[in-house]
Design goal:
Keywords: Oxidoreductase. The protein is of the alpha/beta class and 366 residues long. Helices cover 31% and strands 18% of the residues. Helix 10 links the parallel strand 13 and strand 14. The longest helix has 15 residues.
Length: 366
């Protein structure tokens, strides 16, 4: 059994209290590029293009940032997220790997120990399970294991969740596994702007970050301002104000919640939509403040109901906001079955109808 013991001061300990293992992050200043025109303040980008731009900007700002994974260099990734990076930064900084997810994460850990900031890609959500041991046993624990002496600035990009009619192992909701593993940050963008900024923050973090990209949002477009930082990791955003029910969700289901809010308004119900953005660290203050305003809460996520992230949120809301609640906290989720074939996907995934059913149940509580 390995035991952590006190080390002599000569090995780097100080009498000062240690900083939290999950530390806040800031962005490095971009490198000076004399003579080049300033980029436009905002450009319309898809989420794919926003992530590509974030990777490009992070690699340009820091020579220690490396991008690698299956087909990320020559092909530019299955979804072309990494297109052009190998040509711009060379084969030593953006390179293809064998089809070996455990090795990909193991290499990332070794590179981080040597001072690099690796950004490995796991090609699809269901392919992350072979890397589970490396992520849980080593990536998540290295900073704690070394008393914070060795940072682990690894950002694991994983195209995630369903909604694109994919085959088995290509539409998994893996967030609960990572959230149950202390030492990992877990973020899920819902918009191109958040995809850009959350990825920049993640790459700049000294902690390992699991960056779950909702595939169904890859082709969503919006203006992205790469000069005006968005709220950091650990901050939720209220996407729509309301007074009757708080809907808490993230990733690809944020537009679903907003559509449901439009339909609910026709029935006289006012929904407040909270986009979590960051699942760990969780901005529970924003969640609690919203629930205190509305008195009702529905949590929505794609994964199965049992032990999904909605269960943790429902428990915490019930514990900490009990006297503010007018109704039980409800969950609109996927079913407790394996992810179905593509032709049944729309039946399996939680949608507007499943969410509005929960809203109605919350509203009619005596």
């Amino acid at each position: 059994m390995t035991q952590i013991i006190d080390r002599p001061a000569a090995q780097g300990d100080s009498p000062e209290p240690w900083e939290p293992i999950l530390t806040p992050v800031g962005l490095p200043a971009p490198p000076a590029q004399a003579g080049l025109p300033a980029p436009p303040a905002a450009t319309e980008l898809t989420m794919v293009a926003a992530i590509n731009q974030a990777l490009h900007d992070a690699m340009a700002a820091d020579d220690h940032v490396l991008v690698f994974g299956e087909d990320v260099a020559t092909l530019g990734g299955v979804f072309r997220v990494t297109e052009g990076l190998a040509e711009t930064f060379g084969a030593e900084r953006c390179f293809d790997t064998p089809l070996a997810e455990s090795a990909i994460i193991g290499v990332a850990i070794g590179l981080a120990i040597r001072g690099f900031s690796p950004v490995p890609e796991i090609q699809f959500d269901g392919f992350s399970y072979p890397a589970f041991d490396q992520i849980v046993s080593h990536l998540a624990k290295y900073r704690m294991r070394t008393h914070g002496d060795i940072n682990m600035p690894v950002t694991v990009r994983i195209p995630s969740f369903g909604g694109i009619g994919a085959v088995e192992h290509h539409s998994e909701s893996t967030e609960s596994y990572w959230l149950h593993t202390a030492g990992l940050k877990v973020v899920v963008p819902a918009t191109p702007s958040d995809a850009y900024w959350l990825l920049r923050y993640a790459i700049s973090s000294a902690d390992p970050v699991i960056f779950l990209e909702p595939k169904r949002r890859y082709w969503a477009r919006e203006l992205v301002d790469t000069s005006a930082p968005a709220p950091p990791i650990g901050r939720a955003m209220v996407r729509r104000n309301g007074t009757d029910v708080t809907v808490i969700t993230y990733g690809g289901l944020v537009p679903t919640a907003l559509n449901a809010a439009d339909l609910a308004a026709e029935r006289g119900w006012s929904l407040e939509v909270v986009d979590l953005r960051s699942l760990n660290p969780l901005d529970f203050d924003t969640v609690a403040a919203s629930v205190q305003r509305t008195g009702r809460a529905v949590v929505m996520h794609e994964g199965p109901r049992t032990l999904g992230f909605g269960a943790e949120l429902a428990a915490r809301i019930s514990e900490e906001c009990f006297y503010d609640l007018e109704a039980p906290v409800l969950r609109a989720t996927g079913f407790d079955t394996p992810y179905p074939p593509a032709r049944l996907e729309k039946v399996w995934l939680p949608g507007v109808d499943r969410l509005l059913d929960c809203v109605e149940r919350a509203m009619v509580q005596p």
